[in-house]
Structures are given as structure tokens and as C-alpha cells.
Design a protein that fits this description.
mainly alpha, 10 helices, 0% strand, globular
């Protein structure tokens, strides 16, 4: 049996692999409506990107995803059923595109995570939200809940920054600077959101949710959502 130190490093390596841009979930093709925010001039520069992402983190979809991830982690750790949470998480999608995005990412994540065999994979079949899949798999492999939430949020913000770079709003240097600024808010969010449950779900980012719906009829687009 590995020592606690080795087991902790193993869990860290797995978390890094699962949330790496190279992990085959196809996240690069989605923007969660951020493309519409840029096209419709809600976000024009680096300051706008930074403000938008920190708002999503504190009061929008990223906050809800973190809570759902934490709940999946708790249920898996306690050996409780996941079916009700899976159904709720997919039902919370605010648009058809967002539903397709979260379930395609979730299903792709489960399929790829099967490279690390564990019975949890059999519990995650069918349409499943990405955040729920990550939370359950992380718990099954001994990744701490706070660590899983922090890494997930970091990956989500990195993906949004990648969208902004590819759409020409910012360059790579500004993108790295935004990621550095987001470090402390991510750490604080992981600590704050880890103990929360389903009663704490909610969003105050109405414009972002509306833009996600508007993206479905956008004339020209680079991303699927």
C-alpha cells in the first residue's frame, strides 16, 4: 500500500490529468455563451474579461458548478446514490446549448476517466453534468473536495481565457495576468463553497444566462455554445 504522502501525490497527479486542457473532453469547442458576450460588446478588453469571469465565479454559473461538484463528492464519499443529483444538475441548464455542453463534457469525462478503473464509472452512465462527473470521480480516487473544487474552477477560468484569446480580445500575456489575479478568488471560493449544499444554489448573472440562449441563434460563431 502506498504511504499517505504517495497517495496524496497520486491523487494530485490524477486531478492534474483530468482537468488538463489535453484531457479529451472537448472543452475547447465551448464558451458557455462567452462568445456572445464578446460579439455583442459586453466584454471589450482585458479588464472586461477579468470582471466578467470573477462575477461568474462569485455569483454565476461557476459558483453553481462548484456546489454541484461538492455535492457529488460528498455523496460518493458517503456511498449515497447519485441519481437524483445527476437529474437535478442536468435540469438546471438554462438553454439547450448549455445542456448539450455540460452533458457532452460530462459523458466524455467519464469515458476518459475510465482509464483509471473504479466502480464509480458504472454509476455515471448516460447524460451527466460535467461538474457532477468530476466531483464523483475525484471523491472515488481520494481527491480532497476543496482541491477538486479549486482545480475545477481554475480549469473553467482558463477555458474562458482561452476563448477570449482565440476571439482576439486579449493576448496570452494578459490572459496569464488574469489567471494570476483569479488565484486568490479561486482559493477563497473553494473554501467558501465546499461546505455548501443544494439549498445554496442560485445565480445573479442574468445577462450571462441570456447571452447563452442568444448564442443559439448567433449568425456566425466559432464555438458550440
Amino acid at each position: 500500500m502506498p504511504s499517505d504522502g504517495v497517495a496524496g501525490r497520486q491523487a494530485l497527479l490524477r486531478l492534474m490529468a483530468w482537468l488538463s486542457p489535453a484531457f479529451p473532453v472537448g472543452g475547447f469547442s465551448y464558451s458557455a455563451g462567452f462568445e456572445s458576450a464578446i460579439v455583442e460588446d459586453h466584454v471589450r478588453d482585458g479588464d472586461g474579461v477579468e470582471a466578467w469571469l470573477l462575477t461568474l465565479l462569485s455569483a454565476g454559473g461557476m459558483r453553481n458548478d462548484a456546489i454541484l461538484l461538492g455535492e457529488a463528492h460528498r455523496l460518493q464519499s458517503e456511498g449515497q446514490p447519485l441519481e437524483d443529483l445527476i437529474s437535478l444538475a442536468t435540469a438546471l441548464a438554462g438553454s439547450a446549448e448549455r445542456h448539450a455542453e455540460m452533458t457532452r463534457l460530462g459523458e466524455a469525462f467519464v469515458q476518459a476517466a475510465a482509464a483509471w478503473p473504479h466502480p464509480v464509472i458504472e454509476r455515471l452512465q448516460g447524460p451527466i453534468a460535467y461538474s457532477v462527473a468530476v466531483g464523483a470521480v475525484a471523491a472515488a480516487h481520494g481527491v480532497a473536495k476543496d482541491d477538486a473544487i479549486a482545480a475545477f474552477l481554475h480549469a473553467q477560468i482558463s477555458q474562458y481565457i482561452s476563448v477570449a484569446i482565440r476571439l482576439g480580445v486579449i493576448g496570452q500575456s494578459r490572459g496569464v495576468a488574469i489567471l494570476a489575479v483569479a488565484e486568490q478568488p479561486i482559493l477563497a471560493a473553494a473554501t467558501e463553497l465546499s461546505p455548501l449544499g443544494l439549498d445554496d444554489l442560485g445565480s445573479a448573472t442574468i445577462i450571462a444566462e441570456t447571452l447563452s440562449m442568444r448564442h443559439e441563434t448567433q449568425y456566425s460563431r466559432l464555438f458550440q455554445s
